[in-house]
Design brief:
Helix content is about 25%, strand content about 30%. The chain is of the alpha/beta class and about 475 residues long. The structure holds S-adenosyl-L-homocysteine. S-adenosyl-L-homocysteine binds next to α7, β17 and α9.
Length: about 475
């Protein structure tokens, strides 16, 4: 049996093939076919003819490495970043921006049709054109750089190479802000001068793990948070980093610096941030303006990384919510309350639910800061808070029929989508409209099927590009109640 299996595989490792790229895979990779056998080739662009080397072959498909572009596609362009191919961040720098947008819109459509089981023509008829970016570079307001050492023992800051944990040093990342470089240089210089070691994943030794940098695009305020493997005293005035005052001095000179903190993470884990945050200079938060509202953002809180597109996305979500001033709205997975409070301006009452306590604290402060008194926030898992609220007929003095049967429920879950218990309760609450904001169209498709089977009809689908040059795409969907 074993040997027969081997014979089935048409190609072997290191074999060189010439192939035309005719399709794009889920992560943006090129797909070519030779007599029905499929090749997945990273960095090959639809329309290219390439020579590719087999890396891993299976019965019906293989992964191959792009060796040479023989005939370039009209959609191919030169990558702007010199390390685009090694770095795991961008997958589409070789593809023109227009073609990228088309790919993303199509990806959303295909996922909804194939994984959600909806009719293709129907989805096409309710799909609005993807919201593209006017300026697809320097759009990210946040970066998290791992700190490590290269083979020669030199300290480096960079990004992980695709699907690995080896750090590719980054000089200047074109999707991030210009200030990142000066901040990283200052951190690495300080570490070198003071003999501070980078954290080593294998041994669990060393101090500095990651550097988080965030900027408010409208406020120009910058936040730096060093994630450290610190096991010493945490009393007031404690020195978390050797010669801390000198580092603070250097970092505080970067224009816009507003908050410098450390996050303590001593766990052997892939999770970047530790839960304990200590501000070592300046304020605890930075601010930013979105949809005409002022937001405060803590290091641990989720905040959309592309604020320009986030605003367009939220405006679309608000349009779909169709608010007149009287409605009751639940916003599940609300983060610091960006969507919740944007809707509070034109709703009767809004409720936000979010799992991260710091984000909920930010959300409550943000409501006050913007003079919005018609918002309540609950900290907890959406799949626990909502069912409990519904079962108990409300709580905390909130128990009206409007809250139990709202006009609109908005959800904006992380990539894994909504928990079934959350969806079940949403169906029981029977809102007139559901606005589903999603960063993963595969889990979106799965959840749309559940909502459709539960008595909701898809009314509109719109993709929004928040992450140019990567294969990711954001989507907003409007559903209305049919029963
Ligand atoms: N709507 C917000 C945040 C969206 S990101 C915005 O646009 O800014 C998703 C959010 O869901 C994150 O803030 C994350 O902390 C939160 N989250 C993750 N799992 C959750 C759960 N089970 N219940 C509630 N919130 C959750």
């Amino acid at each position: 049996m074993g040997s027969k299996k081997k014979e089935d595989v048409r190609y072997s490792k290191d074999e060189l093939l010439t192939v035309s790229i005719t399709d794009i895979g889920n992560d943006g990779e090129g797909i070519g076919k030779i007599d029905g056998y499929t090749l997945f080739i990273k960095d090959a662009v639809i329309g290219d003819t390439v020579s590719a080397k087999i890396m891993k072959a299976k019965k019906n498909y293989a992964y191959a490495h792009l060796e040479k572009v023989i005939e370039p596609s009209k959609f191919r362009q030169e990558a702007k970043c010199p390390i685009a191919r090694q770095c795991g961040g961008c997958q589409l720098q070789n593809m023109t921006y227009e073609r990228q947008l088309q790919f993303k819109q199509n990806k959303v459509r295909n996922n909804i049709v194939r994984l959600g089981g909806f009719d293709g023509d129907f989805i096409d008829s309710i799909t609005e054109p993807i919201i593209g970016m006017d300026e697809p570079w320097r759009y990210r307001n946040k970066a998290q750089y791992p700190i490590g050492t290269d083979k020669s023992g030199k300290l480096v800051a960079g990004y992980y190479a695709g699907r690995t944990h080896s750090i590719i040093p980054v000089d200047d990342c074109y999707i991030g802000i210009k200030e990142n470089k000066a901040i990283l240089d200052a951190v690495l210089k300080h570490m070198e001068e003071n003999g501070i070691k980078a954290y080593d994943e294998a041994s669990g030794k060393g101090l500095v793990r990651h550097v988080l940098i965030r900027k408010g695009f409208t406020s120009d305020q910058i936040m730096v948070c060093l994630v450290i493997n610190y096991k010493g005293s945490k009393k007031a005035g404690a020195e978390f980093i050797p010669a801390q005052a000198k580092l603070v001095d250097a970092l505080s000179k970067v224009a816009g610096m507003t908050s410098i903190s450390v996050s303590i993470n001593t766990e052997k884990t892939n999770v970047i941030m530790g839960y304990e945050i200590h501000t070592i200079w300046g304020r605890n938060t930075i601010s930013d303006t979105l949809c005409g509202l002022d937001f405060e953002i803590s290091p641990l809180s989720f905040y959309q990384v592309n604020p320009v597109q986030a605003q367009k996305l939220y405006e679309q979500a608000i349009t779909y919510a169709d608010l007149s001033g009287k409605e009751t709205v639940w916003d599940l997975y609300c983060g610091i309350g960006t969507i919740t409070l944007s809707m509070a301006k034109t709703a009767g009452h809004v409720f936000g639910v979010e799992i991260i306590p710091d984000a909920i604290e930010d959300a409550k402060r943000n409501a006050k800061r913007n003079g919005l008194s018609n918002a309540d926030f609950f900290c907890g898992k959406a799949e626990e808070v909502l069912p409990e609220f519904y079962k108990n007929g409300g709580y905390d003095g909130v128990s009206s029929n409007d809250a139990l049967h709202p006009d609109v429920i908005v959800v904006d879950p992380p990539r894994k989508g909504c928990d079934e218990k959350c969806l079940e309760t949403m169906l029981k609450m029977q809102p007139d409209r559901i606005v589903y904001v999603s960063c993963d169209s595969a889990t979106l498709a799965r959840d749309l099927r559940i909502l459709a089977d539960g008595g909701y009809e898809l009314k509109a689908v719109r993709a929004c590009d928040m992450f140019s040059w990567s294969g990711h795409v954001e989507t907003v969907v409007l559903l209305t109640r049919t029963t």
